Structure formats: C-alpha cells, structure tokens
Amino acid sequence: SDARLGARTERRGGGRPLGRGVMGDRTAILDHGSWSIKAGHASSALSAEADLPPLVTPTTVRVYDVRTKLQFDQIMEDAETVRGGVSKSSGGAGDASLSGGDSVEASANGSYTELGPVQDGVICDWDAMEALWHYIFYEQLGWEKGEEEAVLIAERMLSSSKLQRELTTQIMFEKFNTKGVYMADQARLSLGSYGKVSGCVVDIGHGKIGVSCVADGQLHMPSGDSMPFGGEAFTHFLREAIQARNGREYSVKSAEDLKHECMEVCSSSKAYQSRTASCEEREHILPDGLTVKIGKEALQAGEVCFQPHLFGYKCMSLVDMVHTSISSVADQVMKRLLTESILVAGCGSATRGMEQRVLNELKLAFPPSYSPSILRRPEYMPQTCPMHSAWVGGFIEAKLAFAQNQHITKYDYDEYGPSVVHKKFLL
After folding, report:
1. What 3-state class would DSSP assign to 264?
2. What are phi and psi of 37, to 5 degrees?
3. Which run of H or of E encompasses 335?
C-alpha cells in the first residue's frame, strides 16, 4: 500500500514549501493533535500580526491499494496534461473530462482508506505517522536529504507513554537523520507562550479535554486529568440534533462548520435553562451554501462540558475537574497561584462564552479568599495564540533549548539509545 495525505493542508503565507531560516533558527517545531498537526520553523516572525503556526495539516493519511493507486496516478497524470492545454486523447487542444483537483479526487473516490494515526494524543499507527512526518519535513518545511535539521516535538505527556517517546526519538534519528530532538509537554509550552511558568491549563482538544497543572515550569503529574470527550463529541451531538430538526442528512464537515460558527456557552446553568426554554429556531447559511435550521442545539453542545450527566456522560464537569486538579497541589502558595493563572487553550477556547463560564463557576467553587482569573493573550502575541499556544510556546522554547544544548544530540542517541529521552527531559 501507499500512504498519502488526506485532507488539504492549510499553509499560511503562500503556496510554496516553507523556506529555512538563518543558522540556529532552522529547528522544525511540531505540535501533535488528534485533529491536526501544527508545524513550522523557529525562524518564523513572531508578532501580533503574524499568522502562526505557518502550517496546519490534518492528522490524516490515505492508504491506497496498489492497483487502485496506479489508476489514480494515471488520472492525475492525465489531469496535469489537461491543465497544460493538451488532451492525451486528441493530441492537441480540446475539451477535458477532468478540470481540477476536486474532480480528480472525486474520480478516485472510494479507492482509499483514511487513517488517523493519532488518537487522544497517542500514536496508534507508526507507519502512517512516519508518512505524515515525511510529508511535513520534506514537502512542506523544505528539508532536503542529507541536510535535515533539529526537531522540537510538543506532546501531551499524560497521554503518551515512555515507549511512544522512545519510538519517536528512534524514528527521528534513524529515519529522518535529524541533528537533534527536543520534547516538551504541551501544557508547559502553552503557559510559556503567555510568559508564565506556573498555571492550570485547560486544553479543549478534538479527542479529549485535558486539565494539567504546571508548577515552576514542571508538570504536576498527580493533578492531570481528562474528560472522555472533546470537540469531536460536540460535532457528533450537533450533527445528530440538526438532522433530527431538519429531517435530512448532513456531513461531518457541515456539522464542523456549524459548530465553529454557532456553538455558544451560557454564562451559568440558570442562564442555560432560561435561554433553552425561550430559544427560537433560526436559519443559518453554511459556507457551502446549505441552509440549516438550528435552535437550542447550539447552546446544548456547549453545555456538555459543564453538565455532562444531562447528556449521558458519567464524569465530573469541567469546572469540578479544574477544582480537583488544583486542590491536589499541597503547597498553599502554589495552589493560590494556579487559581490565578488559568489558561483555556485548544480549538475549544474560541467558543463564545467558554472562558467566562469557566471563570464564573470557579469563583463559586473556591473560597472567597481565592481570586480565580483567566489568562488573557498578551498584546504582542499572535491572534492565533490561544488556539495554538503549545506551538507558539515551542517556537519560543526552541530558541533557548537548542542554543543551550538541552536537546538530544546524535552523539547522545548513539551512546545511550532511545531511552536517553527519559534521562534528558523532565518534561
């Protein structure tokens, strides 16, 4: 079989592969997620106007059957010939049966299997992951064989295992011949992008919602916890709800678009009851032109985090989980500091009302002597920082870690093997 990327890659700032920066800034920065991988160079410009990360690609790989792949490649070759104004069938200018990439993919529809190599922060298909890394490094970041650079990888350490980190290190050195490897926890990097070394990070991701406490730059492992659902569950709930209301099928893509544009979180449970009781049906036009009727479903999708028992989940609410995580820290001074430095990160941080609801309920959960507060994006940081804070934090840390030789070198790997990753990083 042959592995190829699935959905289209969003490359910011142009259609060509990303160039390499000056010496010392060529480190590739990767932030792995179940929905997408964020990538770029440490040479990227960091400012409030910057559109970072430079590359966001879906964590999806297409696996083709060999026979079908040959047919698909022939279709692609014919399509390229047609785009150049020459029809293979006529030998000159003429009408074409395939006119673009969408038509080409439609012609090969059903001839491949889509795989998601990362599930809830865990790499479950190493062959597919290696193909994805190869695509990012050589086709998107502009690496060349024999001139590979160093890599910084952001991972959710509470989800990944020691074996995963060892295999990742082994592949980076033996398959991609990298000059160095540095690994760091996503929660710690997210806080670093806000200029903090201590805080509580609420990461609302695609597969899960994770809560992690970081104290003085180190992940506090006992405080880590996660909810058994994430953005994917919101999409699934919204899709089923609008299908029942509209009496027709909608694609996952349509449900995703509707979630990003309409999903909202009420300021309190009382406000939720009041608004759902009086919520009127309205029509919403999706980017693809479809019209969808939607009512209280937009509010219900956001309420799953705060009252999961109403939707069939047997777990603590998001605010209870944050309260429990912070309370597990023994030091009273640090506990107070964590309460005052709560960061809502991930794609779910863009949901209207999410941060305010978390803050409102935390003020009720903690004693009056505590002053819970949500970290706000610094004015000098990119607008995309809340959604991609781990990548931005990795961008900042890469400039320090590699300059100070805190990374794993090829010599370290040859001397100690893949297990050096545990000796080198406290993560």
Report:
1. strand
2. -115, 130
3. helix 332-339
